[in-house]
Amino acid sequence: MDKFLKKSDQHLVVKENVPNQRKGTKQKFKEEYIEYGFIASGPEDAQIPYCLICNSALSNESLVPNKLKRHLETNHPGHKEKPREYFEKLATERNHQSKKITTYLKLPEKGLVASYKVAQLLAKRKKAHSEGETIIAPALAIVVETILGPEAAEKVKKVPLSNDTMSRRIEDLSSNLKDQIRENFEMELETKVTSSENFEMELESKVTSSR
């Protein structure tokens, strides 16, 4: 009897230890999961599924086919019949966007300021946006390389002056100017209203005192 109990106890201990070992296991992303509109995100040892349609990240526990498929069919029913190539294209586009953002964030602050100043100059002179890339950028590179050397010229070449960039910069400046004008107008209007109210109160006080 005692032998039987000991064997039973040992069996129970072994069974209790199994879930603890499985609990720490992390799900791994598989390439075929792209068929559900997901790509891998996060470090290699703790990957999570990232939805290319709604740009949301799920937990590592959701990194299994049935849960990914359920997310696609429940949240994006209009995409459930899309072929794998469609999601691969989305993944490629997202990768390009990420690289652009990374490049933008690495751009020195002075280079970003210079880009806006050139855009402002083009707008004031009513020049074509393309001149930032076709005339100003090459001219800057020539002047800087001649005076300061090739290393400095390479830094100047990193300043974004393309046609599209200049267009965005000018739009940003225009929007910012409109906001400033609106804020100044609102402040001026508020000041006038306050002055008018003070005048009315002062006038009312004088009339009251004269009685």
What does this protein look like?
69% of the residues lie in helices and 4% in strands. By secondary structure, the protein is mainly alpha-helical. The protein folds into two domains: 31-105, no CATH class; 107-210, no CATH class. The chain has helices at 2-23, 65-75, 84-106, 109-124, 131-148, 150-157, 163-210, and strands spanning 38-41, 48-51. It is flat and about 85 Å long. A two-stranded antiparallel sheet has the order 1-2. α4 (109-124) crosses α7. The longest helix has 48 residues, at 163-210.
Helix and strand layout, with pairings?
Blueprint: H1 2-23, E1 38-41, E2 48-51, H2 65-75, H3 84-106, H4 109-124, H5 131-148, H6 150-157, H7 163-210
Helix pairs in contact: 4-7, 5-6
Number of helices: 7
Task: Identify the quaternary structure here.
Answer: single chain
CA radius of gyration is: 32 Å
How are the strands of the largest sheet arranged? 1-2
Net shape: flat
Give the N-to-C terminal Cα separation.
Answer: 114 Å
Low-confidence spans: 1-22
Total DSSP E strands: 2
Strand content: under 5%
Taking the sheet with the most strands, its summary is: 2 strands, antiparallel
Q: How many separate domains make up the residues?
A: 2
Q: What's the helical proportion of residues?
A: 55-70%
Order of helices and strands: HEEHHHHHH
- Structural category is mainly alpha
- Taking all residues together, what is the mean pLDDT? 78
